[in-house]
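SAMPLE LOG
Freezer: B-3
Tube label: C17
Construct: single chain, 354 aa
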Amino acid sequence: MPLKMAHFCAYAAALGLSLLSNANLCTAAEDHFRGKTLSIYTGASAGDGYDVYARLLAMHYQRYIPGSPTIVIRNMPGAGSLKAANYIYEIAPKDGTAMGTVGGGTATADLFKSKGVRFDPRYYAWIGSMNAEVGLVLAWKTIPIDRIDDLFHRELLVGGGGPTSGNVVFAHVMNKVLGTRFKLIAGYKSTGDIALAIERGELEGTASYHYSSIITSKPDWIANREVKVLLQDSLRAHSLFPDVPVVLDLAKTSDQRSILELVFARQEMGRPFMLPPGTPPELVTLLRRAFNAAMQDPQLITDAKRQRLDLNRPMTGEDIHRLIDRLYTFPADIVAKAADATGENAAEGSIDER
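STRUCTURE (predicted):
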């Protein structure tokens, strides 16, 4: 058995597959992928977050796919990552050679009736996610706000991007659902521009700055206590901030909690990968197992640390499906309130911008 195929087959065997089924699957897959190219379509431009994570995965993923296909990153930016999400759903080949990586907002875009959405996320074949995103609510060190409760009594001047950017959507949701007092100035072109405005004193903070972005662009902010971390925009706390509350901690009613869970569920699948609906199940299974194995590869983990890429709580494809299926069980009135709070049902289509 060739060494590269052995990587995958040994991993599959460790999961408890029978030797016969394991060998049959590996042999068929090697025949299928040998000499082919696996294209990963990223809903972002070269150098943006999804592109960087996809390139990290591609460096190691090939070793765990029987047949060792060539892996090529193809950038498809547009409307956040909506263009790529629609392409994978409607057009991409269903033979395991086309994969997408898009925004976590894909989970609720159909539920919230975002404009331009032509997919139902339940029917993608989800492969896995490289991390869970944790947005941080930050106040600059000189601002007289020390904890999130202060934002119910004092305004915090924050910057945001486009209408569907997390730093805009999350501010609106927390104001409307919880009664916080974020005073938002939107229209900044990037989180980098927002960060510069905070340092210049033009803004007092931000309603969401992803930790995965901070450690690559502004690592000194937290290390040197240039900012105060008030809240985590996520369903669960990051391991580095165990004492900082998460947004669900602010809910006072079951309706508030449900609305927040719907809105912030996208954070759980921060860097997801998926195949088109209709991809043969055996190929889905193989590529999922290869993804899981690659995410445990010591060299991938080392490379991520070197590039300052956060791998906090990766998800399996099966876990993503369970998450999305749960979101579709929420009552219609809760879904409508969540969609209204985000404003995504009125804004031009976009499912992420980072």
